């Protein structure tokens, strides 16, 4: 048998700690990698250990549904009310950081893995957004199926308002990042904005979109913009957007809504918010 000498493992974190075993500086804490204590086959044996064993260990032991309990000593909290509460909060933060990590990896893909990473997010973009939609609705993080559908573990009203507010700010940026690599996700855009969100959550989401309503991403009605206009936006949504801008006293946002509305009037979408109905914000 050929002996395999383990060199090292590095996690491209983007500066975020998404798991107790995955450090910001790239360290991967796992006994099989000799970065944590272990006994027997828990540590690397050049005569019998393999890269497959490392990958399976990472998938099963590190990337589990309740990473909070991976922290040394926290396993004593498993099954307790305090432990489960802390675990839910940890999962919320982990999902938020995962969304940021996705954008980081698409922007700064590890060398020699460019095609693999981009193709993965091109294929999975829709399901990522579908999961975002479910979690913004309050379904338990980590309870969805592979295609981001609800399962028998998908408890409703499981997520905090703070988490939903943060998601509302991140999702528009994630949408744009996925679009830049040509992800098959545009149906997911309709999902996100068809959600009957809490007023404050929707306001936060609209504010996150604010720079894009008349920004370079939509300038000149690119193919992406036309697709969004034709399949996602409609008069009712624009009126609702304007109403929220008024309620939030966001004059600049209201101006952008009507600037965007003017483009719609000249596009193949064929609808617009009547200019005469425009409210005045002094």
TrEMBL record:
InterPro entries: UBC (IPR000608), UBQ-conjugating_enzyme/RWD (IPR016135). Keywords: Transferase, Ubl conjugation pathway. It comes from the Eukaryota. One of its GO terms (molecular function) is ubiquitin conjugating enzyme activity. The keyword Isomerase does not apply. The keyword Aminoacyl-tRNA synthetase does not apply. Residues 1-103 form the UBC core domain. This is UBC core domain-containing protein. It comes from Rhododendron griersonianum.
């Amino acid at each position: 048998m050929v002996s395999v000498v383990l060199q090292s493992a590095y996690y491209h974190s983007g500066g975020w700690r998404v798991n107790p075993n995955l450090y910001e500086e790239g360290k991967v804490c796992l006994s099989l990698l000799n970065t944590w204590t272990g006994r027997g086959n828990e540590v690397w044996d050049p005569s019998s250990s393999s890269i497959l064993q490392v990958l399976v260990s990472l998938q099963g032991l590190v990337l589990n549904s309740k990473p909070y309990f991976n922290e040394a000593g926290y396993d004593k909290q498993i099954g307790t009310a305090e432990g489960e509460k802390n675990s839910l909060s940890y999962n919320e933060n982990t999902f938020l950081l995962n969304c940021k990590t996705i954008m980081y990896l698409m922007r700064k893909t590890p060398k020699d893995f460019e095609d693999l990473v981009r193709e993965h997010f091109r294929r999975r973009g829709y399901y990522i957004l579908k999961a975002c939609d479910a979690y913004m609705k309050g379904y338990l993080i980590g309870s969805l199926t592979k295609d981001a559908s609800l399962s028998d573990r998908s408890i409703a009203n499981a997520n905090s308002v703070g988490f939903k507010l943060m998601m509302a700010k991140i999702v528009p940026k994630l949408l744009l990042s996925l679009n830049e690599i040509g992800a098959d996700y545009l149906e997911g855009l309709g999902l996100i904005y068809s959600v009957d969100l809490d007023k404050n959550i929707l306001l936060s989401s609209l504010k996150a979109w604010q720079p894009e309503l008349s920004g370079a991403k939509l300038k000149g009605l690119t193919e992406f913009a036309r697709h969004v206009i034709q399949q996602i936006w409609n008069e009712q949504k624009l009126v609702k957007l304007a109403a929220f801008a008024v309620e939030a006293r966001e004059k600049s946002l209201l101006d952008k809504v009507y600037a965007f509305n003017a483009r719609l009037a000249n596009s193949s979408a064929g609808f617009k918010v009547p200019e005469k109905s425009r409210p005045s914000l002094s």
